[in-house]
């Protein structure tokens, strides 16, 4: 039997399917014989098999975008991206770069569980995809799907803190989503959400919280609003020892979101000082490497602040 030749060029096929990554069914619907597909995907051929039933119309190494398209084509039309790939698409900057299998959510009645570059998680709660060019889960769901599978506390802290700090969700909304899902892997994100509920908003602040918890100092408020006697906001220090009116700032561009944020940090230092508030400055690397020195500095500053009249200011805890 003579080999049937596809009547369409490569560019015509890509235009028809709107991608260079395509399911075999779509190629067959365009008149490309399965035998032709198989031959073109052989080693050295012009195409490349990415997943069972999914091919790339190019033979080079697949990009991450190619792997995402392949995962969605493989998992079916109801599948949505979640985890790190969805967070990158949403523009989160502190999440780790996606690597390894592409995480997708599929309906619970699907039998397909994944193949190499795909992690297909069956669920009865497949979310509606967010508007955009990708079928991706909302940020809240994606962040918690990542957090349940991650074992690195600081990575979970970075992701969930950015979700809250950028206003994409409140701590209460994240907690509600966590309760609605499986309890498997929920212990770490639940602990990080408690930090966020206490006002912690960065990895560095979380480490500072752990450090001060091991001392006899009173627990500070995290990121509270400091108001003057007239009720006007002065600033929002990273931590605040309310009993003596002592501010603690974790000074770092690394753990704030931009140089502009860092500039605002410097400005609020000036406003705090102008109201007679003592400030302790710590660097994240000092917290990690010389925690005992930081604790001793905090103790001395706290004792010194206690000798002065407390500034006439009021602290309002951060809203969750």
Explain this structure to me?
The protein has 13 helices and 13 strands. With 320 residues, it is α+β, with helices and mostly antiparallel strands. The protein is elongated, with a radius of gyration of 26 Å.
Structural descriptors:
4-stranded mixed sheet; 3-stranded antiparallel sheet; elongated; alpha+beta; 13 helices; 320 residues
Amino-to-carboxy terminus distance: 70 Å
Mean pLDDT: 89
Number of strands: 13
Helical residues, percent: 40-55%
Counted by DSSP, the helix tally is 13
Computed over alpha carbons, the radius of gyration is 26 Å
Query: Helix/strand/pairing class, anyone?
Result: alpha+beta
Order of helices and strands: HEHHEEHEHEEHHHHHEEEEEHEHHE
Indicate the overall shape: elongated
Report the sheet-strand fraction: 15-25%
What composes the largest sheet?
Answer: 4 strands, mixed
List the helices and strands and how they pair.
Elements: H1 10-17, E1 21-23, H2 24-29, H3 34-40, E2 48-51, E3 54-56, H4 64-75, E4 80-81, H5 83-90, E5 102-107, E6 118-123, H6 139-149, H7 153-165, H8 171-180, H9 187-197, H10 203-213, E7 221-222, E8 225-227, E9 233-235, E10 239-241, E11 246-250, H11 259-274, E12 278-282, H12 284-289, H13 291-306, E13 314-316
Parallel strand pairs: 5-6, 11-12
Antiparallel strand pairs: 1-3, 2-3, 4-5, 7-10, 8-9, 8-13, 10-11
Helix pairs in contact: 5-6, 6-7, 7-9, 8-9
